[in-house]
């Protein structure tokens, strides 16, 4: 099966054998197009989805159709694991880019309670980790300034992917539109564009063509007031980040900088 398994997504939580067992319970992988709905609010389901490749977003919309992006799902995340107990999702989830998912039947998860109770408990620990990220999103949009919100989202996305071996510390994929970014940070697209310009001009980071390029990681962390404690990272990863956060600037490829300058 393509994509990342649970052992590589949560190396401190799932063993390789446990990841292989979960994979054996999943259905065949399916690729969906961008903006495809992976879950619909209020619709009963009998399986949850595991994101093997690609990105997805959680959102709700008001009565005028204005959306608030509630969370970002990266490879290695369960899309809607709580539906195993709740029966349906209370929000919409859609692919933000081409994504590959596999279904894990609710019945198979329930059977683990008897057949593999330790693994069953670990799956519910995943929901607690997801809840920790969601709490931080509430803090971010409720307390941080506009520029810090964007910097924090970039830092979080980078660190989450880095911890799974999906990117280095000089940049990461983030295949979302500027409108998506504004919705995630609770601001208008115009305001988001202005904040992106400031981060670029100060050579902290740039956002272009579905990717974040980091020019100065320590400054990005400081601008974001970023503390990764809520991500519950493996100790070695957290230690590495602490070391890098105290270091010097990281330079983005000059070609990317020239490309941005030409568009400014």
What's a quick, concise take on this entry?
This protein is an alpha+beta fold and 264 residues long.
Report on this structure.
The protein has helices at 6-9, 16-25, 83-86, 106-115, 117-143, 146-163, 178-185, 189-201, 217-224, 235-245, 254-263, and strands at 30-32, 37-39, 47-53, 56-61, 67-73, 92-95, 99-105, 171-173, 205-208, 211-214. It is an alpha+beta fold. The strands form three sheets. A four-stranded antiparallel β-sheet has the order 2-6-4-5. Helix 4 packs across helix 5 (117-143) and helix 6 (146-163) crosses helix 9.
Map the helices and strands.
Blueprint: H1 6-9, H2 16-25, E1 30-32, E2 37-39, E3 47-53, E4 56-61, E5 67-73, H3 83-86, E6 92-95, E7 99-105, H4 106-115, H5 117-143, H6 146-163, E8 171-173, H7 178-185, H8 189-201, E9 205-208, E10 211-214, H9 217-224, H10 235-245, H11 254-263
Antiparallel strand pairs: 1-7, 2-6, 3-7, 4-5, 4-6, 8-10, 9-10
Give the count of helical stretches. 11
Strand order of the largest sheet: 2-6-4-5
Q: What is the structural class?
A: alpha+beta
| Low-pLDDT residue spans | 249-258, 260-264
Rg calc: 19 Å
User: Could you tell me the strand content as a percent range?
Assistant: 15-25%
């Amino acid at each position: 099966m393509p994509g990342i398994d649970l052992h590589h997504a949560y190396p401190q939580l799932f063993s390789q054998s446990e990841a292989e067992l979960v994979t054996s319970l999943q259905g065949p992988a399916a690729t969906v197009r961008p903006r495809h709905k992976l879950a619909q609010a209020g619709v009963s389901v009998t399986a949850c989805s595991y994101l093997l490749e690609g990105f997805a977003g959680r959102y709700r919309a008001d009565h005028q159709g204005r959306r608030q992006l509630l969370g970002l799902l990266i490879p290695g995340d369960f899309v809607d694991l709580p539906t195993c107990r709740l029966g349906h999702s209370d929000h919409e989830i859609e692919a933000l880019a081409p994504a590959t998912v596999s279904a894990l039947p609710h019945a198979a998860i329930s059977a683990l309670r008897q057949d593999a109770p330790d693994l069953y408990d670990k799956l519910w620990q995943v929901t607690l980790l997801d809840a920790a990220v969601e709490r931080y999103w509430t803090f971010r949009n409720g307390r941080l300034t506009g520029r810090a919100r964007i910097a924090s989202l970039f830092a979080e996305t980078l660190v989450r992917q880095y911890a799974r071996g999906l990117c280095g510390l000089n940049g990461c994929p983030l295949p979302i539109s500027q409108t998506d970014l504004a919705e995630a940070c609770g601001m208008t697209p115009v305001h988001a564009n202005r904040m992106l310009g400031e981060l670029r001009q100060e050579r902290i980071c740039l956002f272009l063509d579905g990717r974040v390029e980091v020019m100065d990681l320590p400054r990005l962390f400081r601008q974001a007031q970023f503390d990764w404690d809520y991500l519950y990272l493996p100790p070695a990863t957290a230690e590495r980040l602490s070391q890098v956060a105290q270091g010097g600037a990281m330079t983005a490829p000059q070609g990317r900088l020239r490309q941005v300058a030409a568009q400014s």
